[in-house]
Automatic annotation (TrEMBL):
Keywords: Carboxypeptidase, Glycoprotein, Hydrolase, Protease, Secreted, Signal. The keyword Cell inner membrane does not apply. Belongs to the peptidase S10 family. It holds the Pfam family Peptidase_S10. This is Carboxypeptidase. PANTHER family: SERINE CARBOXYPEPTIDASE-LIKE 36-RELATED, SERINE PROTEASE FAMILY S10 SERINE CARBOXYPEPTIDASE. Its EC number is 3.4.16.-. GO terms for molecular function: serine-type carboxypeptidase activity. GO terms for biological process: proteolysis.
Amino acid sequence: MDGGRRLAGASGGPGCSSLAYGAMQELGPFRVHSDGKTLYTNRFAWNKAANVLFLESPAGVGFSYSNTTSDYVSGGDKRTASDNYVFLLNWLERFPEYKTRDFYIAGESYAGHYVPQLAHTILHYNKDPNNTFINLKGIIALRPDKTDQPGPLPTSTLQIGNAIINDETDRKGLFDYFASHALISDQTSYKIQKYCNFSPNATTQSSDCYAATSEADIGNIDIYNIYAPLCTSFNITPFPKKASVLNFDPCSDHYVYAYLNRVDVQEALHANVTKLSYDWEPCSRVIRRWEDSPSTIIPLLQELMANGLRVWVFRDNCSVIKNITLRQNKALTAIFLTAIFVTAVKDTINGGNETAVNTAVKKTAAKVSLTAVMKPPLKKLPLKPSFNGGNETAAKVLSLPPLMMVVFACRAPAELQ
């Protein structure tokens, strides 16, 4: 895209690659065929709406590297925000034509930490007129990906990768989701809520809590989409299978791994120029520790909103991780009194139904409103009309201050319908 906005994208983990997920499996222009060497196009790619940067951060993730071995010993939120800011400055010096353009930051899963922290860093340095000004307009927190694994207990030792916005409600919501989708019994759910302390200050749990959470075994289910099929073969195929962006292939991780480890692909991407001693991996095996991870990002979101930034929070009802349980929505609405919850029904996604959005707009004039999810979306939210102001419905929503939460229902695979 020659004009328009800039958008930087990050994935979760911490320590997972935005190439692995954001670029090659979600919102990038191409997907990898099952042969691990050819590509097909994604007609819903976000680069049709904005110039998109995918950041593999911090050093040690994907193709990102450091000349200092000690940098791989430990990572953390603060260093990631600082390194990402330095990268943006250097990138703008290399491509100065983008300096004045509107800039958005998007991310998923643990990028619920990365994105607000980078935005906070940008706002801080923007105050100094001697620094390069980054024209930051807003942030977008997306649905989780297949990067972070939930721990069985809400203790401080299990914080890494679980939280996207607020540890306590995210972890309670995990078990709420299990119960509300009949993945665990009501009795197990009751015992978990009774005996487990979800506070971020909790350092130990009772034996009753351990016993209750041990019962919360949901079996062989994809925790990022409980209705999705599972990968049964980890091998690439001699010839590409028929593929479509509308039909999720649960083995896509393996196709991407094979593709990005091809020498010819790395040469074409100008990647791995230092000839790393390890394979490209979707999630880092090089970073050994994650040293700082705040239990909540809500104060940062409040500060960003106070500085005039728009904050979009997308959640869905397919994933066990950071889903749309009532407890989690209350945690946000109790703080963001101007939050907007918009139903993502099929027609709204396609830009053809103003009624649902107008209803939400009217109801949120003085209070928070949560409209019921009626139909599953068939497509990802089209950002082009939203960014370019070409869609009246999107424009009305975008004009409202300052937080919007879009709740996605999910659609089961065709064979389950």
